[in-house]
């Protein structure tokens, strides 16, 4: 009885050792997941790169925004199509992992390509739910309608969605391979392409060696095409054709990688062990 108060007071006292033990635990978790380590430096780097190019462009083209009413709002809305398209695909997949339902799905008659088709449709639904209200809000608040782009808007929308699906396929494959430690890629991967896509500035503002990389992205052609419609009133069909060709190549490659990773994961029993 005499020793109990002393033990209780010792347990209640602040312990640097216990704090250190917990910090060490989190360091081990962080060290064991390279996507988490990358994520720590990712956002500051992306912000510096993206806004650096925007500042560089506007410093020598101060009247550019005034000449094209709503060009930044239109670019932001189209960028969100790409982001939501990829995220909607990846999140639907992650929901199956979070609920530990992925293994159950694939002992059912469901085929991998049917699963991908369902993820694609859910991506489209999620994107429309997210972007359409924002487009109407832009009309209400700023008097700018992205629908004024006309029929080219439909082409821009689906070209960006296709690119989002290709990125989503790669991300879901990586999550299957590395587990939930890689789920942060669902939120950060697409933003790595933002500085190269020329969302808020022409591709020509990039260094020459980066322009080569930029023109390998369907999104670069879409945003250049959007600006051609807004500033010149012309539809760059050549941009649309190149974006479509790249989308087809990337979706085919991403689909093949997804199926390969799926078969490897099933053979190694990884589908049973991932999830929370």
Describe this entry's structure for a reader:
- The protein has 276 residues and is an all-alpha fold.
- The protein has one domain (45-273).
- The protein is 77% helix and 0% strand.
- It contains 14 helices and no strands.
- Helix 8 (151-178) runs antiparallel to helix 12 (218-232) and helix 8 (151-178) runs parallel beside helix 13.
- The longest helix has 31 residues, at 112-142.
- The protein starts with a helix and ends with a helix.
Task: Please sum up the structure shown.
With 276 residues, this protein is mainly alpha-helical. Helices cover 77% and strands 0% of the residues.
Which labels suit this protein?
globular, 276 residues, mainly alpha, 77% helix, single chain
SSE diagram, text form:
Layout: H1 3-12, H2 16-31, H3 34-60, H4 64-67, H5 71-98, H6 102-105, H7 112-142, H8 151-178, H9 185-188, H10 194-197, H11 208-214, H12 218-232, H13 237-267, H14 270-273
Question: Unreliable segments (pLDDT under 50, ≥5 consecutive)?
Answer: none
- In one word, what is the shape? globular
- In terms of structural class, how would the helical and strand content be classed? mainly alpha
What pattern of helices and strands is seen along the backbone? HHHHHHHHHHHHHH
Helix content: over 70%
The biggest beta sheet is recorded as: none
Number of strands: 0
Average pLDDT score: 82
């Amino acid at each position: 009885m005499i020793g109990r108060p002393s033990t209780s007071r010792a347990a209640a006292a602040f312990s640097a050792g216990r704090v250190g033990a917990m910090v060490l635990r989190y360091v081990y978790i962080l060290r064991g997941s390279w996507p988490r380590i990358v994520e720590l430096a990712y956002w500051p780097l992306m912000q510096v790169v993206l806004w650096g190019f925007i500042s560089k462009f506007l410093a020598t083209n101060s009247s550019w925004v005034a000449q094209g009413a709503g060009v930044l709002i239109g670019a932001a809305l189209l960028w969100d199509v790409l982001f939501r398209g990829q995220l909607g695909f990846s999140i639907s997949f992650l929901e199956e992992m979070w609920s530990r339902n992925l293994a159950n799905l694939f002992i059912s008659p469901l085929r991998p390509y049917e699963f991908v088709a369902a993820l694609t449709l859910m991506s489209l639904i999620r994107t429309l739910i997210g972007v359409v209200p924002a487009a109407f809000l832009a009309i209400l608040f700023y008097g700018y309608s992205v629908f004024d782009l006309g029929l080219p808007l439909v082409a821009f929308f689906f070209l960006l969605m296709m690119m989002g699906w290709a990125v989503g396929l790669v991300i879901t494959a990586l999550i299957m391979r590395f587990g939930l430690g890689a789920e942060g890629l669902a939120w950060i991967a697409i933003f790595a392409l933002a500085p190269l896509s020329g969302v808020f500035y022409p591709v020509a503002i990039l260094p020459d060696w980066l322009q080569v990389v930029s023109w390998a992205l369907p999104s670069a052609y879409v945003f250049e095409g959007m600006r051609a419609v807004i500033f010149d009133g012309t539809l760059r069909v050549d941009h649309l054709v190149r974006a479509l060709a790249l989308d087809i190549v990337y979706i085919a490659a991403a689909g093949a990688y997804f199926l390969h990773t799926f078969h490897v994961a099933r053979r190694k029993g990884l589908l049973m062990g991932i999830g929370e």
